[in-house]
Design brief:
The protein is of the alpha/beta class. It contains 5 helices and 12 strands. Helix content is 28%, strand content 26%. Keywords: Cytoplasm, Methyltransferase, rRNA processing, S-adenosyl-L-methionine, Transferase.
């Protein structure tokens, strides 16, 4: 029988009871129809998975869980990958984030490029970031991960605060294939994916000035929501935990 997994921001410890916040509680009680006595797994990003039993549900989306066991779970890739993804339209961005999390990325940086068709500002940007973070949480619940990648607020590509790691960007005109890059160090990789229509020549030149190397991913041109997951899968196969 499949064990239900749920993410919480609450501190967890074996031998104590925790009252989950309204979001996870609502999902457990209203959507998954969980009741007192049902067992589940809970995680909060500390690297462990906690198993427990629901002890109470009530009005106001209340759900309490008695934590009975803590297990160390080794499902995180040894290859840190930060995905810098040009914001895509509608469900395509959700797809990018969901699959990137399932494939093991450690962080996601949405960016606006010259050819990005979606523009978000103020409260709309905040709301969209919150939605994307929940997509990441759900992907980790499904895939068995115990650490949730952070989805940063969307910014212009040229305003990006670069994380640590060797910088790569997909470029169908690049001479070097992705499979022939040098093995990364402990800081891993930062992978930039352009929008539908691709990065402009000016953006490619700017990335190169930021010490980002262009790499090609096969002879075919991929959609933006396909390129990221495909490249991440290839990198995990060569350098990560798919070897």
């Amino acid at each position: 029988m499949r064990v239900i997994r749920i993410h919480t921001e609450e501190p967890l410890e074996a031998g104590r009871e925790v009252e989950l916040e309204p979001g996870p509680s609502r999902h457990l009680v209203r959507v998954l129809r969980q009741k007192k006595g049902h067992q589940l797994a809970v995680f909060n990003g500390d690297g462990y998975e906690y198993f427990g039993t629901i002890t109470a549900t009530g009005p106001g989306d209340r759900c309490c869980v008695a934590i009975e066991q803590r297990l160390e779970v080794n499902v995180e890739s040894p290859l840190p990958i930060t995905l810098v993804q040009a914001v895509a339209r509608g469900d395509r961005m959700d797809w990018c984030i969901q699959k990137a999390c399932e494939l093991g990325v450690t962080g996601i940086r949405p960016v606006f490029t010259e050819r990005t068709e979606v523009r978000l500002e103020g409260k709309r940007a905040d709301k969209r970031q919150h939605h994307w973070q929940q997509v990441a949480v759900a992907a980790c619940e499904q895939s068995g991960r115990v650490r949730v990648p952070t989805v940063q607020p969307p910014v212009a590509l040229t305003s990006l605060d670069w994380p640590a790691g060797r910088r790569l960007h997909l470029d169908p005109k690049a001479d070097r294939p992705l499979s022939r890059i040098e093995a990364p160090d402990k800081d891993g990789l930062v992978l930039t994916i352009g929008p539908e229509g691709g990065l402009t020549e000016a953006e490619v030149a700017w990335l190169e000035r930021q010490d980002s190397s262009g790499v090609a991913l096969g002879p075919r041109v991929l959609r933006t929501e396909t390129a990221g997951p495909a490249a991440i899968a290839a990198l995990q196969t060569v350098f990560g935990d798919w070897q």
